[in-house]
User: Fold this.
Amino acid sequence: MKTWSIILMAMALLLSAGASYAAMSVETYTVTPSTLKPGEEGSVTFSVKNVLPSTATTTIAPLEDVQVFYTAPTGIEFKAASPFTIGTIDSGGSALVSVPFRVLPTAKSGVITASFFISQKDKNDLKTVNAIIRVVNPPIITLSSDRQTILSTDVINLTITNNGGAASKFVIKLADGTNFSFMGTTQIYVGDLAKTTVVQVPLDSRKVTEGLNTIPFVISYQQEGGDTANETKYLTVAVKKEKADISFTQGEPIVTNKDNILKMKIRNRGRALDDFRVLLTDEKVKARESSQITLGNLATGQEKEFEVPVFADEQPGVRSTSFNVKWVEDDVEKEEAFSVPIVISSDAEVGIYLEVKPAPLAVGGDYTLSVTTSNLGSYKIANVVVAIEDSPSFDILNIQKEQYIGNLDNDAFSTVQYKIRVKSTIAAGDYPLAFKVRYKDQSGIWIEKEVKTIVSIRPASEGVQKDNGNGTLMLVGIVVLAGAAYWYFKMRKTGKSSLAGERAK
Assistant:
């Protein structure tokens, strides 16, 4: 009897030992949906199992008081409080865990890691799930115009609204094949797009039929993460053909901050217009004298040119300028406003200043000529190149006559140097010296100017000697040494002759 008691007790102990080896395992997680946008909701799902270890008996203890802990990472908001209890998982059983979450509106595109920790109460067995949540945040672009009706040539204020992720390097073009076109440019560069951005868009609708039309704007930009995207946005406008179907063409650019003569050509594309007059009404490009120009009768297809003395208080570039036209039709005076794109150049001006070392310039000498180029205009100039021209008075020893300076702000300057040799065949006097300076002004126009100056060349005798007089001193020294040697040997010879005579006596 005692033996059976011992056997039953041993079996109980074995069963207890087997039950103590219950093990917890976590299956692979899933995130639904696989990608989310800011503001969207999803869930992380995984399974917790009570598995049988290989060393255990057939009896498995339950997993008791199983809990899930987590902390919300940046950009994520969990819908349930942490921790929450799964409860008890019986031998061989499992529990499905689903944790709902929301992507915050401020979340950035990319990968967000959410960590979950699963454990039993009063046990050291801890499991971890690192769930990868992928967030995409593409820009959501909307275009709108301040004008529902546009004229044949017009400028609209285009409002670009972005209700999505960041968009940089934003560019606006028009789709191929459309009859709409930009005036003065082929695309409009916006750059980094703010929440709301307003840009001026100069439109040419002269080839478009009158009435409702759709403008196909092709936009391209760089998204968060660096991917480039292209979209076509359609904007519907009503195109109104002016009663006076005329077009303006600028003869040549005018210069900002200076008195100019604005030269324009006007062409009548519609029916004949009587007593036709043009009025310059712009606040930035102002007429210096009368703002009204009378052109008389304007037949169909006829062109006329006119000039207006103006002062342009406007930045360089393609600018919309306001004109009014008046004419008489059926004894009634009619008037219409036009917005005409004109090109305004900057008042870019350069100055050349010279310095030579050693000074002064003299016939036959070698010198270092420092050429300082200064921006005397009101605006920055770019890609500045200066070149010295051939001169009858000296040779240029540089391998290149043209030297690159780069950009110059207004009132800024930069210096380049040339090695020169004054020709020994010329006479002293004043000689011309010319430089060519090429640069791009603020309006994007390339300008090339020739700057001339006069340099004074002295006779060779007035130049700085290369040996600084050392040659003459050396020659004098040689003569003195030669004289001293001659005197020494002569006196020595005389002394020997006298001594010999005395011995003979």
About this structure: DSSP finds two helices and 36 strands in the chain. Residues 1-20, 466-489, 491-505 have pLDDT under 50 and may be disordered.
